[in-house]
């Protein structure tokens, strides 16, 4: 058999094997197992600092596109590596005309791959989209990966042998006249597999978070309490977890005297509290709607920490989601009575996309600290970091005071002559866990201010909603601004020295055109 033939036969066999492996991974993803298709992205994203991360996101057109690019390039890379591995295998098989020993191919393609995956992907192996505890998930991910590479190895060897089968009477492994037919058969199998894979991919796409990740809540529809299906949503995942509560548990461990494990019923048995709390994403723009308000029911985190007796070295608490998302807060914040493990949102169990069966609520801290699909509470040292912290977000995660004008629309037009009554101006103001004590509004870009009326006071941990009536006297273009004062008496401001990765500060302004 010539070099070129060995190489190209190996290439084709490798490609078909890689297609089979990828389809297997899609199947596993469909049943909630973590596969390299997504965890490679999770593993790599902690190495991208926020600046490049944001510019990359801008270039590809948002988080959703970045995720699609991630999965797409992993699949492409996998097919490419599979084909190359096949070609090398073809060349090796040509040198050694005996049937390749399974011991060798399994050692190289299966055992080595598993070892490499275990080393490179260790931190993200404990991911499970069905809610398995982290240690169990790690095993499931690794065994499933092993099955995938085993399928690759078997398909590669079988396809290669099928293509180069020795015909009776000839001594050497060689292409026979039937090669065309065999290549056709193998190609057809490959195409059928790829077709099945595409079908699966389409189903997964429909189940993916693309349709709701980045959902905003703002404008004239804003109510005091955000309905669950309109609550803003941010997730790092391509497909979010759908936790099976029978498989799920909640661990309290790390720097504690008595590690504990809670089942969902155990959590329900702890005394519960109900609390209205607003969440805001760190990347919420001044005019944006990555902020919402809900009534959460759950247990105080300290009621779970105290029975475990944190050791004196414990300085931070790290929360783990089943999606291997993590974040940390200082121990003092964890012990505050308003820091909750919540299992209900506005009177119903947490919706899947908001963290079913349990999530963190950390009033006054940015949304990313409110870890969803919570499965582990780890007491840890002062330098421990979470998913976005490792990327380099922060250093400040305490929400500054913000306000937004929701009505009228930016760039709206009115005719003074036709105005029957004052123009209604409405909006929200949010002061983290400090509450809101005053809201002012200006129609001359902040030269003069007047008080707005708070028509909904959400309390210390939630936003307040305000309104004002504005009767413009003359035609012209007006710049409307709002400014809030928090419960501690600090007026909303633009913090010049705040890191760009600690959330924006400043004022939301809109322009209103008045004609005669
Ligand atoms: N497990 C997990 N928790 C998570 C995230 C995530 O990707 N995975 N995203 C965080 C971010 S960045 C934000 S802003 C909030 C959003 O919560 P929501 O979607 O319920 O509004 O969840 C946080 N908790
Ligand atoms: Mo966020």
Task: Describe what this molecule looks like in 3D.
The protein has 516 residues and is of the alpha+beta class. The chain folds into three domains: 3-207, no CATH class; 228-391, Oxidoreductase, molybdopterin-binding domain (Sulfite Oxidase, Chain A, domain 2); 402-515, Immunoglobulin-like (Sandwich). 35% of the residues lie in helices and 22% in strands. The protein contains eleven helices and 19 strands. The chain has helices spanning 3-30, 36-45, 50-60, 63-95, 102-121, 134-163, 179-207, 264-269, 301-305, 331-335, 387-391, and strands spanning 250-254, 260-262, 273-280, 291-300, 316-321, 326-330, 340-345, 348-349, 359-361, 374-380, 402-407, 412-415, 423-430, 436-442, 450-451, 453-456, 464-470, 476-486, 509-515. β7 (340-345) and β8 form a beta hairpin. The longest helix has 33 residues, at 63-95. The radius of gyration is 29 Å and the shape is elongated. The N and C termini lie far apart (88 Å).
């Amino acid at each position: 058999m010539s070099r070129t033939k060995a190489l190209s036969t190996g290439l084709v066999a490798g490609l078909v094997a890689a297609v089979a492996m990828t389809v297997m991974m899609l199947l596993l993803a469909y049943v909630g197992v973590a596969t390299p298709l997504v965890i490679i992205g999770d593993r790599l994203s902690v190495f991208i600092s926020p600046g490049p991360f944001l510019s990359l996101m801008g270039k590809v057109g948002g988080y959703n596109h970045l995720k699609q690019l991630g999965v797409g390039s992993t699949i492409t890379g996998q097919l490419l590596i599979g084909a190359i591995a096949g070609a090398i295998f073809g060349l090796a098989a040509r040198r050694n005309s005996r049937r390749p020993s399974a011991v060798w191919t399994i050692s190289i393609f299966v055992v080595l791959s598993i070892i490499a995956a275990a080393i490179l992907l260790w931190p993200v192996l404990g991911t499970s989209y069905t809610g398995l505890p982290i240690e169990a998930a790690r095993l499931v991910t690794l065994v499933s990966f092993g099955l995938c590479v085993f399928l690759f190895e078997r398909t590669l060897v079988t396809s290669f042998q099928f293509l180069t089968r020795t015909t009776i009477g000839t001594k050497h492994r060689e292409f026979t006249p039937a090669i065309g037919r065999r290549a056709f058969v193998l190609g057809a199998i490959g195409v059928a597999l790829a077709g099945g894979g595409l079908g699966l991919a389409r189903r997964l796409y429909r189940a993916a978070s693309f349709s709701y990740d980045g959902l905003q809540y703002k404008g004239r529809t804003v109510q005091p309490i955000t309905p669950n299906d309109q609550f803003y949503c941010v997730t790092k995942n391509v497909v979010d977890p759908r936790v099976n509560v029978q498989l799920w548990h909640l661990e309290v461990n790390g720097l504690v005297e008595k590690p504990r494990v809670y089942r969902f019923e155990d959590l329900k048995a702890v005394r519960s509290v109900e609390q209205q709390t607003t969440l805001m994403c760190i990347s919420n723009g001044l005019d944006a709607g990555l902020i919402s308000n809900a009534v959460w029911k759950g247990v105080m985190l300290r009621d779970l920490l105290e029975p475990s007796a944190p050791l004196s070295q414990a300085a931070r608490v790290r929360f783990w989601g089943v999606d291997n998302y993590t974040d940390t807060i200082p121990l003092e914040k964890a012990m505050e009575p308003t820091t909750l493990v919540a299992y209900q949102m506005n009177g119903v169990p947490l919706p899947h996309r908001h963290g079913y069966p349990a999530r963190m609520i950390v009033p006054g801290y940015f949304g990313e600290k409110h870890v969803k699909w919570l499965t582990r509470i780890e007491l840890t040292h002062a330098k421990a970091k979470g998913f976005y912290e490792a990327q380099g977000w922060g250093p400040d995660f305490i929400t500054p005071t913000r306000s937004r004008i929701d009505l009228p629309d930016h760039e709206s037009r009115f005719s003074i002559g036709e105005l029957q009554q004052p123009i209604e101006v409405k909006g929200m103001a949010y002061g983290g866990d400090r509450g809101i004590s005053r809201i002012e509004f200006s129609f001359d870009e902040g030269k003069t201010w007047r008080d707005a009326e708070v028509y909904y006071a959400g309390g210390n941990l939630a936003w307040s909603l305000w309104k004002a009536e504005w009767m413009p006297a003359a035609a012209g273009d007006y710049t409307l601004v709002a400014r809030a004062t928090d419960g501690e008496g600090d007026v909303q401001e633009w913090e010049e020295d705040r890191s760009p990765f600690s959330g924006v500060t400043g004022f939301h302004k809109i322009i209103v055109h008045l004609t005669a």
